[in-house]
Amino acid sequence: MTDLISTLGVNTSGPIPARSPIDGAELGRVAYDDAASVEKKIAASVEAFKAWRDVPAPKRGELVRLFGEELRANKDALGKLVTLEAGKILQEGLGEVQEMIDICDFAVGLSRQLYGLTIASERPGHRMMETWHPAGPVAVISAFNFPVAVWAWNAALALVCGDSVIWKPSEKTPLTALATQALFERAAKKFGAAPANLSQVVLGLRDVGEMLAKDGRIPVVSATGSTRMGRELAPVVAARFGRSILELGGNNAMIVAPSAKLDLAQRAILFAAVGTAGQRCTSLRRLFVHESIYDKLMPALKKTYASLPIGNPLDAKTLVGPLIDRSAFEAMQRALAAAKDEGGSVTGGQRVRTDENPGAFYVHPAIVEMPEQTPVVCHETFAPILYVMRYRDFADALAKHNAVPQGLSSCIFTTDLQEAERFIAASGSDCGIANVNIGPSGAEIGGAFGGEKETGGGRESGSDSWKAYMRRQTATINYSDALPLAQGIEFGA
Ligand code: NAD
Description:
Layout: H1 3-7, E1 16-19, E2 26-30, H2 35-52, H3 57-73, H4 75-86, H5 90-110, E3 118-119, E4 126-134, E5 138-141, H6 149-160, E6 165-168, H7 174-191, E7 199-201, H8 206-214, E8 220-224, H9 227-239, E9 243-247, E10 252-256, H10 262-274, E11 284-290, H11 291-306, H12 326-341, E12 345-347, E13 351-352, E14 362-363, E15 366-369, E16 385-391, H13 394-402, E17 406-407, E18 409-413, H14 417-424, E19 433-436, E20 448-449, E21 452-453, E22 460-461, E23 470-478
Parallel strand pairs: 5-6, 5-8, 6-7, 8-9, 10-11, 10-18, 11-16, 15-16, 18-19
Antiparallel strand pairs: 1-2, 3-4, 4-23, 12-15, 13-14, 17-21, 20-22
This protein binds nicotinamide-adenine-dinucleotide (NAD).
Residues 141-146, 150, 168, 170-171, 205-206, 209-210, 213, 224-226, 229, 232-233, 247-250, 281, 380, 382, 408, 455 line the site of nicotinamide-adenine-dinucleotide.
């Protein structure tokens, strides 16, 4: 039990234990929603939406501003809870809360910028305009690895857009969701004029997510998680003509070119490949190194890997915390075995700290040198495995870079302007995120976040991602005394 949970008075009683991946200890207990309570919450969300959609958008922004203030005041406590429940190091736990604060700030400004267009009409005495209206209740289904930031990316925008929100967090991280919801309720109380049930949490396994996906009263379902989940959920939402925003698996790569600043590349590799113990959707998983620098970069990288501080993520010196659970560890071991079978040479990857933490799963991040991009490399294993391949020709590296089913994040380290431009050109990286001299992970909230192909195509966070949480209406107004028809059609008199 943490300070935040107790000071917020979050109800942590129930039959289901919430455990910390740090040591397997029980942090609290929760109760799952059943079909009847999910139904009740959806109905309440519809009522909240009906009231909220008529509140002027800048006023809606004021609620999000107050929520951002609550997050600022509780950043340390919520960041620590993220670390306890998801296992990421404290710096990253705090960074996750900062990301929530940033998106609140963005959404507050956005609340005065939900612009439509005025469009020239072909008919005299007519005017056309496009207005963005609130869409309805928005379901947010989130993954364990960003237990609170992903919800905030969605919720902050949805709320200023005039939508109500129903959040189904990962079953692996229910407490951070309950704490965040409690902070939101504090902000709503200060705001004074928020309808009841504007934001709600439903807890449970995937069946609870499925209930939200099926329900025709929820026009937008934003779902973050594995490609398997998206493959199951998207047809369910599509069958009722709902809108999905899908943020699914990635298989992110870096090309290190001969002209790269190797010290920068090495630091970027380390943060992206071992940060969050390789459990970011944008984690670096594939590394293409030019043959001319391979023998310089790889020994240096292996040396750094050999002395990685692995341990309790609350300890300031730790860089690599635990995997989320046993199944993540087993998936990692299966992938390493497959990589060996496919000709890979594995350094690291073994379980560590079994004496100190027998109920937890700490691993030494693995470097796997591959002769080529074999099937295991094309698959996202959600663990710290870095597959490394040599390349000779830039075009060949780029082709291999794009030859995986996922399309989330990508990067190149080069000081060659032509290579950099080719990488981000139409025929370059096919990912939603393409960076030059920056690793693939750790995006800012100002840009649209998401990816192509099996990553699902959704965009969240900055730029014009807000449009996905609204419905577009085209209105034509006739202020003349005539009734001219479009396309010059004559119909009767
Ligand atoms: P997961 O797919 O196991 O679960 C994600 C969420 O979906 C959970 O809340 C789960 O209960 C729910 N769910 C599962 N099946 C469902 C179904 N059929 N219908 C409705 N809901 C369902 O993912 P995870 O293990 O929690 O997270 C890791 C995965 O998430 C990785 O693949 C990672 O790349 C991905 N991810 C992607 C992004 C992104 O922005 N693209 C961000 C974070 C994580």
